[in-house]
Amino acid sequence: MSTAFWTADPISDASSGQLFAAALIGIAVIVVLITWLKVHPFLALTIGSLLTAALAGAEVAKGVTSFSAGVGATVASVGVLIALGAMFGKLLADSGGAAEIVDTIVDRSSARTLPWAMALVGALIGLPMFFEIGLVLLVPIILLVAQRSGQPLMKIAIPTLAGLSVLHGFVPPHPGPLAAIGVLKADLGVTLALGLLIAIPTVIIAGPLFAPIAARWAPVMAAGPAIEETVGAQGAGDPTRASSMHPTGSTGSTDSTDSTHSTDSMKSTGSTDAAPTRQQSVTGRRPSFPVTLATVLLPVVLMLGKAVSDIWLDENSLAYKTLDFLGTPLVALLLAVVVAIFTLGVGTGMDKNQLSKSFETSLPPIAGPLLIVAAGGGFKQVLVDTGIGGAIGDAIGGSSISPLLLAWVVAVLIRLATGSATVATITAAGIMAPLAGSMSTGETSLLVLAIGSGSLFFSHVNDAGFWLVKEYFGLTVGQTIKSWSVMETIISVTGIILVMLMSLVV
Fold this sequence. Notes:
By secondary structure, the chain is mostly helical. It has helices at 16-35, 41-55, 60-94, 97-107, 114-126, 131-149, 153-170, 175-184, 188-209, 211-217, 225-235, 263-267, 289-312, 318-326, 329-345, 352-362, 367-385, 388-397, 403-418, 421-436, 441-454, 464-472, 477-503.
């Protein structure tokens, strides 16, 4: 096994039985704190980590040191990327670039191709944005498109939600995939490439193909004049509201961590209080579609270029060194933000104060997700330093069950219990980390995607996103389960099937 995961001198010398018991009790405490006592996941993970270390026989001071080291390492490797991604997404929204993508694709679609166009819209908006920000930006557009086309609401909404959700769960720079990549030491470029390959058919199956069925199960039509009034009011609204509506920041429904949301609390925000959609920008202008699309795809292309260079180019060549540098996640996202300042900011007439405000308001919403990811890294380090990870790795290594399938099952169970995709992802990644050291680059990336697939399984009433979707689209609980929850389950199951199939050739 790789020394990247295991310490030569564990802080505990307990037996395997005691280590397994400590892990199970620690995870159970985390789940109970989040679901029953409604404790914030960051605090729950911190308490669970220190309790796990103590139950494993580690000294208190060593347990604290191990947890702190994991938190620091995770923030160092993932925190900056999450911050850059949030800044990029906020600038895309404030400049009107997100609205330009939506309007261009929708305006060029026929009634027959509209669900497919909305899936593409969701996927493109989902690349740089957290799920929830994309959702509140797109809800009024979804309602308007459904009203004007005369099509059932779910036939338009489901493809869009599928595009947003799949990209959020499978593709960096979203917190879940980034956290799993950091814990498992996976190659980001390879994971991104494989994630996009799996995301495309998954979006198609869970989006346009499932949408007609969802429309029959949840036969809801968009309202009439009220929607026009809503969008008109939003068009002149505050473009920063998209990132501040949800108490947990921009974690999104697939990344939701606040299970205390109820129907009543969601009604207080409601669809009439969503973010502006057909905004020009804070200056009244919007960037062109080609410029916006090129800017959005820039970090993806750079990171994919690094993955290609790792496979095809000589490590000593200038081309390899250049692509390797530009495709480093930190460099790729930093370059994307710098380019966006000119293409989306200066290009639409934003001055330095407006740019500064956009970046400033992009960071507070990520505090919650960042702390959760950091605490998850601390929990992972406790599993490693106490020797729990090694014991789990030995047990899994002797099992006949595929590690990819097992990782998916672990993530599914935690997702169902906590309602949080991020908690499911980072906890499952910590449990499965022992196997990553003996896997190839491609296999490790597939392990990340298997965990990501499991983290999206069956969003239900303990997920704040469930209530967001219900209230935004005026659904009953039953209709929300038949549409949104089933869609999430299709994404999860399709994802793991494609991961297993891809493992045959990777």
